[in-house]
Amino acid sequence: INDGEGHPSSSHQTLKGTSKWATSLENLLEDPEGVKRFREFLKKEFSEENVLFWLACEEFKKTQGKKQMQEKAKEIYMTFLSSKASSQVNVEGQSRLSETILETPHPLMFQKLQDQIFNLMKYDSYSRFLKSDIFLNHQKSEEQEENSPEAQTAAKRASRIYNT
């Protein structure tokens, strides 16, 4: 069975928005709207740098070419890891990181640090996010949209088509 776009349909794909975000941090981070709301929440908690670092590392892994990798690695280092970083993240082993690693970059060079930040978000801020006004209000507005007369009419039409 395929969905309308030719992708195999599964229960995961039928979940949308906040329902999908609530199943895992991974699902939240795959959704641009989810990332936006999570950043909004983390900003209020003064820990937005965690998700920004995680996103920068994801982008870094896709970087092609040694020169571009060096530039992006240096940018990540200076923004998040250096002792003078403007948005410093708190990770173990940070003090052992030096700028010399930036000379020979590789796609997974920040992986351990990224995993630490992911786990910090997963076991700390993510659970608070799911209880936050930002999440709950977004969830409420989604439910109101689903229960709007237009949505119900479309659903009734679809059920009539398929149940005849």
UniProtKB/TrEMBL annotation:
Residues 140-164 are annotated as: Disordered. Keywords: GTPase activation. Residues 24-135 form the RGS domain. GO terms for biological process: regulation of G protein-coupled receptor signaling pathway. GO terms for cellular component: cytoplasm; nucleus; plasma membrane. The keyword rRNA-binding does not apply. Gene3D superfamilies: 1.10.196.10, Regulator of G-protein Signalling 4, domain 2. One of its GO terms (molecular function) is G-protein alpha-subunit binding. PROSITE patterns: RGS (PS50132). This is RGS10 protein. It comes from Certhia familiaris (Eurasian treecreeper).
